[in-house]
Amino acid sequence: MERWLPPALLLAGLALWEVAARAGWISALFFPPPSAITLTLLRMLGSVDFWAGLGSTLMRLTAGVLIGGGAGLLLGWLMGVSRPLRVALAPLVAALHPLPKLALFPIVLVILGIGESSKVALVALTAFFPMLLNTLAGVQQIDPTHWEVAANYGATGGKLLRRVVLPGSLPMTLTGLRLAVNGALVVTIAIEMLSARQGLGATIWLAWQTLRTEDLYATLVVIGGLGLASNQLLESATRLLLPWKGKP
């Protein structure tokens, strides 16, 4: 019964929204009825321009997560197993992590120019810190007994990584990956609104400039779908890689 409550509430809210917009209780210009948004979404799905924009957004998101997330994963492992490296870099990470990543965009533009590299770099920077911090936390929470057993068996280098560090930090690493993907998606859309000619963020900005609010809401639905799909995919990966955790 409980699993039907969220969709029932959603449908009830949409029905109320539809009635209110049609009856003039709320402005249909700023809150177009869900039926109009649905028709706009269907029209967009049949447009080549929409798929090109979606492809641009996914390219920036994927490249940024792979670059930034991969770097954060590696550095998190290294800082977790090396106390001198952790002591040396911890203040720098603590200082840079709270900075709003969009505030760094002008600096990135000065360094890398206005092309795709600057956009991907900022998305990568956004994905970097969640992966770094969660991977580091995952390594640090490994039971000391595991380190002692590995040392007694002479495990070093790659063997230590495969047998202790990777499996021990995996739950926190997957949590970091989810945070990295969600944060990177937000920043990708924001960057596209600021400086891109193609992408879901650029579509939102154009819809706002031309007061095509149906297009704006329809694009937001697509972005929400991307976020939902990515979270479902990562939940499936977590259940597959960590079957002992069971369902959340």
CATH class: Mainly Alpha
What is the CATH topology assignment?
MetI-like fold
At the fourth CATH level, what is the homologous superfamily?
Answer: MetI-like
The run of helices and strands is HHHHHHHHHH
**Number of helices, counting only DSSP H or I runs of 4 residues or more:** 10
Unreliably modeled segments: none
Give the averaged pLDDT, no decimals.
86
Q: Which of globular, elongated, flat, extended, rod-shaped describes the shape?
A: globular
Evaluate the radius of gyration. 22 Å
The count of DSSP E runs of length 2 or more, i.e. the number of strands, is 0
Detailed description of the structure:
With 248 residues, the chain is mostly helical. It has a single domain, classed as MetI-like (MetI-like fold). 80% of the residues lie in helices and 0% in strands. The chain contains 10 helices and no strands. Helix 3 packs antiparallel against helix 8, helix 6 packs antiparallel against helix 8 and helix 8 runs antiparallel to helix 10. The chain is globular, with a radius of gyration of 22 Å. The model has no long low-confidence stretch (mean pLDDT 86).
